[in-house]
Amino acid sequence: MKTFATYLEESAEKESLVAHHECMEFTNNNGKRFVLLYDDILNCLRIIWKWGFSIEKNFAGNWDYDEDKYRKVFGDILKEAGANSVVTNLGSQTSNTIKSLDLYAGFLLQKKPDETGKRPFFLRHRELSGIFSLKDEFRKWLSLSGKSDKSAERYSSAISPTISKLVDYDVFSILSKSDFVTLREALSNNQEFILLDANGNQMYSIALKHYEQFIASRESASGDGQLYMIPSNEEPRLRKLCLSVLTKPFLILTGPSGTGKTRGAVELAKLVCEAGCHQLVAVGADWTDNRHVLGYLNPLETEAAEAKRPIYETTAILDLILHANDPANLGLPHVLILDEMNLSHVERYFADFLSAMELEDKADALKLHAAGAAVTRTGKNIPSHINFPTNLFVIGTVNIDETTYMFSPKVLDRANVIEIHAEHDALSDFLRKTSPTVATPRTKDYGISFLDAAHVIQAKEETAHAMVPLLPPTVRDAAVDHLMALFRIMKRGRGEYGFRTGKEVMAYLRTAHFLAGPDEAARTTWVTEKNWQDALDAQILQKILPKLHGSRSRLGPLLGALATYCASGEEAHAMEHFPTDGAVAKRTLQDARGLTAMKFKNSYEKLDRMISVLIEEQFVSFIC
């Protein structure tokens, strides 16, 4: 995503407007400086969008600039915004203020500025809806609630523009159930609405009822006003976990027992979830099929009621899934923690789950039984198929010893893998009781909920979003160059990765860029200080290296090549670890040891440890 300063450079106003970190500035003909705070601009744009139908009615299709007309129409509207820097300027600098509002809206939409300088363009309701409207989110919620795409579109269109035009403001600006009191009062005596609803078989009343339920689910997700709060990137204990689950809803934590894997997962779950929306489940060594995950139909028992429906034996995991699928909870993140996930073969009990997780269409993705109807022992209906929740995140912890099983590459490929170890100094401080007090995990307002940010980042097609910017082209190009070099090295060593890995690495970088914010200055610093290289380093470690396991003859050249590349960033030097035309390779494993200039430090250090194990034991695996 372009910075606002870059965006201004491409506009016709590049000589008159100046972008700073927290505000923009312009100077009038008498040399007097005026400042508009970005926060004030954003508040004003939201109000202009909310009252867009009323504004367009006042302009009656004629948006040609007229100072008195613009001052009157926007002045009355913007008094509600409480945005002093904008409202004050509107009284004396209407033209420049309107231009500033319009340009900032275009920047948020990431649409090319009008080079002719004709203003405004982006202040129209249909444009601002691309920034503020909840219409798309509501339509998605309807689909997740089981409505067809046709019904979801019909209900959302019934609300806006149809109902919105009746009340002269966009109903999709309503953010709380209490606001519905005013709306219902306005519509209760509106004869046009009453007639419209009667002729439409109460479709408009039903649409409003659905929207009220949708808002209730958002309020539930917000808890005590925390809807837009996401774990702060200043908390190193949770930063990696947060980055990973926002990018991919399946995370594996591996490392020695007692290093805080489960504790970290529980901390993250408590930070992003409401009570009742996260569950810790201990995997058993007897989990040989999916009955321990999704439950099973009990053929020997039926309910006591007359219907005599068979009993479905549920599980804690299925209960969490059903809770996540409840229409009232679709806006709430849910976290499932599978403790000691590899005590049994993951593929045996988790295959159906993994398959459903990767499907684009998750409707009815999980099959529970083949009976016509079934109920739990508490009388709750259990359908034959259920949706795989798009608001569910899965974190598995893994210990490696003689009682556990190794993960297959297909499982590792579907997850981010984070290795957790006890650091020497931290363990020493702990034993000597000199450990500093651990800070309470904090959150930060990013202008978008944790769940919505995850949906944006994990979407099939990468799209721009006002609150979750795309990667700057310079970072994207540099990262792709490294990924393609690593792909060629991995392919030469017969271990290349596929499209899924590449897509998820780039999504991770976008997440890291997003969490560097939420202000533009912080994201600019993230780029200029090359923090993106640290994020790429993390993904090499979490997405590419976990695929490695094998004997010295099979893996030695590849480990040496990867280590050399992670140290130097030089593909040609890395490729010298592979023999060519039957000749001995120019570089050996020892040549990749003890390198000091490290491009990707953490990845290199892991590879160096793996090389040491490979030399000593003639076999090595990433998870060991």
User: Reading side by side through the largest sheet, how are the strands ordered?
Assistant: 6-9-12-5-13
Integer count of domains:
4
How many angstroms separate the termini? 40 Å
Please, what is the CATH homologous superfamily of the largest domain?
Answer: P-loop containing nucleotide triphosphate hydrolases
Judged by helices, strands and strand pairing, the structural class is: alpha/beta
**Proportion in helices:** 40-55%
Uncertain regions spanning at least 5 consecutive residues: none
- Rg over alpha carbons: 28 Å
Query: What is the number of strand segments?
Result: 16
**CATH fold category name of the largest domain:** Rossmann fold
Name given to the CATH architecture of the largest domain: 3-Layer(aba) Sandwich
Please indicate the percent range of residues in DSSP E strands (runs of 2 or more): 5-15%
